[in-house]
Specification:
Blueprint lengths: L6 H6 L1 H5 L5 H13 L1 H20 L7 H15 L13 H69 L5 E6 L5 E7 L4 E6 L9 E8 L8 E8 L4 E5 L6 E8 L12 E4 L2
Antiparallel strand pairs: 1-2, 2-3, 3-6, 4-5, 4-7, 7-8
Length: 268
Amino acid sequence: MARELTPSELDELLGAYALDALDADERVAVEEWLARSPNARRDADELRETASLLAQSVEEPPGDLWSRIESRLGDADEAVDAPPLRMPEVVDLGARRDAVVATRSARRPWLIGIAAALALVIAVSVGVIAGRQVSDQKARIDQLAVGMEQRAVERAALSATMEPGARTADLSSSDGAVIAKVVTTPDGHGYFMTDAMPRLPDDRTYQLWALMGEDQGSPVVSVGVMGRQPTVMAFTADSGVTGFVVTEEDAPGVARSTQPAMLQGRLA
């Protein structure tokens, strides 16, 4: 090459290098720079890997992506037109050196435009990919957390049934079928357990109520809204609780129910 490029000039060419848009001399200069600069090598590898990922993974790029790329390239073109394609002239070595320097200086803006376009493609498309991956990962983490929490409550409920002084209530429907079980411990912990509750519509929820006395008409207190299809739920229970009732309510639950009992049972 007629002139050794500076590090900043070589860094400017990394985008074009990733697109295979350099001439032979520039490619040699960039590859020599990559051999000397770990940071430049890392950047070039990331550009090429991301471009490969982009080609394989992006199914539906944003609708305005290509217009944004054209706009970015248009900005570069307004600064200086890309050199026209022409046959090289025969010049002496001095004139050739000057011509190469001038041509490269003139060409760099549109090469930078290419690099900027690549950066825009990568930034937008990787943002789409990364956003999708982050969203999927978050959903998996949330699902895992819910599963772990449920298993922890299930273990606690099983331990409660074997705790000295624990009381249980079998909750049955109007036809006498036992659908669920409630266990309470002397220290006020309670657990509702079932695997047979039908799934409710989106706007409905099951709600658990505690009976606070033995007499007909004793107070009933809500101890928890259980969602559309409960399996196990932990709650706190007062020592005066004598039984439990389950009703179906409008989501997200009510302070006082006017619905008939779906399930009910007394503590033994």
